[in-house]
Amino acid sequence: MHLKYESTLREPLIDGVKDYHQVTEDIISPIEAKPGKLWYIGLFISIALLLFGVFSVTWEVYFGTGVWNLNKTIGWGWDITNFVWWVGIGHAGTLISAILLLFRQGWRTGVNRAAEAMTIFAVMCAGQFPIWHMGRVWMAFFVMPYPNTRGPLWVNFNSPLLWDVFAISTYFTVSLLFWYSGLLPDFATVRDRAKTKLRKYLYGVASFGWTGSTKHWQRHEALSLVLAGLSTPLVLSVHTIVSFDFATSVIPGWHTTIFPPYFVAGAIFSGFAMVQTLLIITRKVLKLEEYITIGHVEAMNKVIVLTGSIVGVAYLTELFMAWYSGVQYEFDTFYKFRAAGPLGWSYWIMMTCNVISPQVFWFRKMRRNIMVTFIMSIIVNIGMWFERFVIICTSLYRDYLPSSWSYYRPSWPEVGFYLGTFGLFFTCYFLFAKYFPVIAVAEIKSILKTSGENFKEKMVKYEDEDVEKFAHDQTHH
Amino acid sequence: MEQKKYWKGLEELHNTAAHQEAVKNEFREDLPFEESDSFLGATTPRRDFLKYLGFTTAAATIAASCDIPVKKAIPYVNKPQDITPGVPNYYASAYTVDGEYVPLVVKTREGRPIKVEGNEMSTVTEGSNTARVQASVLGLYDVARLRYPGINNGPDKESLEERVKEIALFSELDKQVTAAITGKPVVLLTATIISPTTKKLIGEFLAKYPGSRHITYDAVSYSGMLLANEQSYGKRALPSYHFENAKVVVSLGADFLGTWLNPSEYSRQYGKNRKIDAKKPEMSKHFHFESMMSLTGANADERYTHRPSETGAVALGLLAALGGGVTAPALVDARLKEGIAKAAKAIQANPGKVLVVSGSNDVNVQIIVNAINNLAGANGTTIDWAVTSNYRQGIDAEMEQLVKDMNAGSVGALLVHGVNPAYDYYDAKKFVDGIKKVGVTVSFNDRYDETTQYCKYIIPDHHFLESWGDAEGRTGYYAFIQPTIAPLFKTRAFQASLLSWSGNTTAWEDYLKNEWVAKLGSQEAWDKALQDGVIEPAAGAPLTGAAFTADAGSAATAISAPKTGGMELVLYEKVAIGNGKEANNPWLQEMPDPITRATWDNYACVSNTVAKTFKTELGDNYEINAERRVLKITAKGYSVELPLMIVPGIHPDVIAIAVGYGRGKKQFIGKAAGEIGANAYPFASFNGQTFSYFATDAKAEATGRKYPVGLTQTHNSYEGRPIIKETTLDAFIKNPKEVNHDREHLAHYGEDFRNDATLYTGGTKFEYPGIKWGMSIDLNSCFGCGACVVACTAENNVSVVGKEQVVLAHEMHWLRIDRYFAGDENNPEVVFQPMLCQHCDNAPCENVCPVAATNHSSEGLNQMAYNRCIGTRYCANNCPYKVRRFNWRDWNGADSFEGNLHDTADMNDAITRMVLNPDVVVRSRGTMEKCSFCVQRLQDAKLAAKKAGRPMKDGEARTACQQACATDAIVFGNINDKDSRIAKVRNEEQTDRLYYVLEETHTLPSINYLAKIRNKDAAPVAAGAHKEEKAHH
């Protein structure tokens, strides 16, 4: 019988024999090199999309919300669908950085930086929709509870939209702090390696004078834990509050107590899918396969199949309750106008993408297949977009009074706005991929000590040793 | 014991001067406030930083809040004696367009007429009016009206200014016209004129020009009735109808609630017998036979359809069934035959309480109808021949003769007033050919319309709100018209021209006054007449019949046999647009048709059966796509291309097309009416005696094109949801409570559902200590006519959005009338439900607004603070009634962006904007709006009571919709006032029929509805029957 340093079942968190220097080289050098052609093409397309989005929104603000195809019956369409979708995407980043940190999940280090960046950019995109969907966006500051000369007239603290204002802004602030504080040591690394003056200066400013002293590290660790503690409830609260936008209403299909957990699960579901989409490309392009391993991909696929199934249960619960409640309006909404009716197709896209297709991840082979994962990640995000569309539009378009029933198709400025947020997101992401360390160097190094191949090699001699001898050596050393 | 005194230091002990000084001075050391020499050079120490930050934030916020440009009103330099800014003046007037008779009270503000209401002193209309009357005030400000008199340069020129050369002086025109017409026989062609003084003047004018004649031409003619009455009773006149005396009303295609003769009067009368409560469960029974689905047909208890060519057969069938000694042609349709038998039975069971009316313009059919009425004992009970009605006077044969004479070149001069035969005469081309051969042509029409463009002299008449006049609707019943504003344009009263051309130098207003002072005996009496607006004979005169002398037998033989094969086409008038004269009225164009819910267009109405042959049928696809297949409809060698519209209840072999569309160019007719739809008048024809408004052997073909139609409601069925409650009269008599049986389920929440149905302990009591406004809407006496919709639009400055925006479901109506069909798609039951903000006590919209822009008043009003609204639309989403309306575009220039105005119908012209009610703000783009219960009127009533130092009386505060309702289907008032009508309706009279829409959602609406009662034998549409009905939605 021999000792084992690590379970044979546990996969390495980092592949290949890496030392600290090599880790730095692998992750930091893309920042120092000139980006490739693909990067320029990607950035160009992203900026073009962003500008089209700006044009679409300008058009809408100038001519009025009427250029969107919303109407007297359907007051929200693509705008709020996209808002909820983007907010949901953000959730994976927070979950990875906060909850997995608290649970001491070592595998998070490979993906947390990019996932957090994704969170920030997604929340930035999400925030555009509630702002620009306002009819009088120039009066948007009315939602701020500031002392004013109108009485003073306060905001309506009963309104879930107001809760949204606080929830989203808090979420963004905390996520940004968390992400940025993690970036400090890595920026310092870039600064220290910098060969040009400008780079040294900029990264010097960005790293806030990080020296790597023990005191800095100690404070950094403490701050990380505090922010993780703050972020953890946010993972649950933000989408809970977003779900209140619907759950507190009286509209059949919205008025549901199941929404908070259902929304949170859905958010994590879509968020992990988005992380997969981004990282599968990033690891390939930046050649980081040894840091973002198949093991990472598989771990995230497990989360996807879990949350996807939770969402599936939620869908079935809704159907059950619609029947069991005995409310005619609710029954009609779910069975006649959601699962069937003119918008019924959107429900079945949602069902297929979110509930049926993720079941392939019960198979290990599928979980570890990059191509399958990539396609699935796209499918899941399509499905989750449709989930929000289904909730918002199929509830509104045929509600209580049949005289007001209507139909909805987006107009070009609505589509343009959505594309514009993709532009914003990917512009940010491309800049991030070029100028920021996409993997947390300092955190990778910290796990190298326990999980790196170099370190494990040092343990080989013990594993060959006789158990008795090892025990004797360790006790009487 | 002496108090010990502790001291803090020697200074205190010795109480030095320095110490005393120090005690007095609160701040003993200098505070580090830095005084700067210059403002810009000031430093910002730590202590001041927050202060500056706060100040600049506050300043920036205040500055940012003031982005709406301030527009200044210019005060009067010399205030007119009768005008107090902010206080309305009311003048009596009357709407007499095309012979309708609706006495009015006109509300003017700062000299501008802004609203008309029915004159309640008139016993003919009792204050009722119609959508068209309500909209007539906008007609005053129609920018397409001609603005000056002139001479026509002919149709080759491009612009109106080039076509009509202005003649600066009326005297110059008078000189030219009199020179031209002197010695010639003149033909004066007018629509029905009910002004006795104008008629007298016309007589004098015609006498000046020997051989002259006056021809009355009604675009939609009733000459068949006039001639039939002449044969039957020896009077070429219309009797007065008294629907209020009829227990049985049989209408053979007469749309008397919508478009027939004087609908204001008839809907008021008819409505009286549709009021019902459990203590007196009685109502009239209304049989309706028609080809298309009319507003009146939709309100009938029993409705049957037939081909237009069967109209005579149906009338004969009824007469035969009553034992009238005629043989009726056989009818194929078993249901129709059964209907005739049923109607005959009902007539026989109620002798002397029957009224039969017919919309046919066929003399023989009308003689048969007269025979039926005679047999049924209607003469002297529901039909009064002592007092005749003057609503229509045109004789079609005279018009035919005129067109012949014109083409023969024998008409020397043609004076056209208020008619437009080049558009609405069935053979317009022949008329146009003829008018070109007339030596002198003069038009008094208000715009450069199809006929005016062929007239040499153009002398536009005033709008009636600018005019002096009188009207004799029924014999001896007079109404008076007085100007409510100085003429907006350089127009002249038509009568002034006639006076001048007959050599009379009296001004028209003096002529009118002299006439009436002579009749009434004194200036005071005339002043009072003007003030009251009406003069009527003493009440109590008995209704009188007349001896029926016509030969029903020969009329019966003259009625042509019904056709059996092929499609038939029938023309009808839309409730809002009528014959098309007032079509350039954006309020009317945007008012949804009561039946089709369509705006801004005419279309080919067909049944679902016919539609299926064109790959269209009722269902989701039809509902969600505004694009309709365009059909080519051909009959009598004329064809039009119009979008297909499925109308449940239309006869399967019938195509119905509304007249009043297909007008000329927008620049001449106006943006609202011009170049919209297709003209259906050419489908009419002359049958040797009268015009007939149907055609046999019609053909419909697909064109392969599609065309969007703007509907405000696309789903037809209420899906059996308890939002509509209805029952039959028999069931109601048996058990009045049954119609509301589902309300019993609310009982398990506690005694008081409103209070007890909540999760919160102690209930949700909403306290309204002073006033609590409430409204009751009676589904039984609401006929869906739409007068309230237009009244609301006028009162509350509701924006017009235009057709493209209606297609996008962006219309702004605060009050809409939901129309639902139930039952068989060919013979549906119809119900109308006015739907407006329910002013919920537990309003779902209020708690979701993030900025509290919508909130609740202490009087139970759900209020909108437009200035606070940021437009998240959450409130609209969360409104179960979907009554909130969002300003999707800048409809009225009220936002801060230049050049984004969305106005397709000239609603923002400086002239049109004069119609805006200054008491109601226009809403900026991006804000939500909705019914306010006319809060400005409520405030006005409260303030008036307060100034008078007394409590507000019931009925002083009335909403615009309530006031416009011809049948008082809307009751409104303070429910805290136990003596108010609304409190009585709710707590005493109508406890059985009363229900709240979506009551179970616990929104606690302030509006209740009263269940509809149908006076029919069939069982009500029960829960089980809805499954069948869903197939037809």
Automatic annotation (TrEMBL), chain A:
Key words of the record: Cell membrane, Membrane, Transmembrane, Transmembrane helix
Membrane topology reported for the UniProt record: Multi-pass membrane protein
Membrane-crossing residue ranges in chain numbering: 38-63, 83-103, 115-141, 161-183, 222-242, 262-282, 303-325, 345-363, 370-397, 417-436
Subcellular location: Cell membrane
Chief location of this protein within or outside the cell: membrane
Domain of life where this protein originates: Bacteria
Family, as annotated: Belongs to the NrfD family.
Name this polypeptide is given: Hydrogenase
Species of origin: Chitinophaga alhagiae
Species classification: Bacteria, Pseudomonadati, Bacteroidota, Chitinophagia, Chitinophagales
TrEMBL record, chain B:
Protein name, entry field: [Fe-S]-binding protein
4Fe-4S ferredoxin-type domain boundaries: 773-803, 828-859, 860-889
Pfam families the record matches: Fer4_11
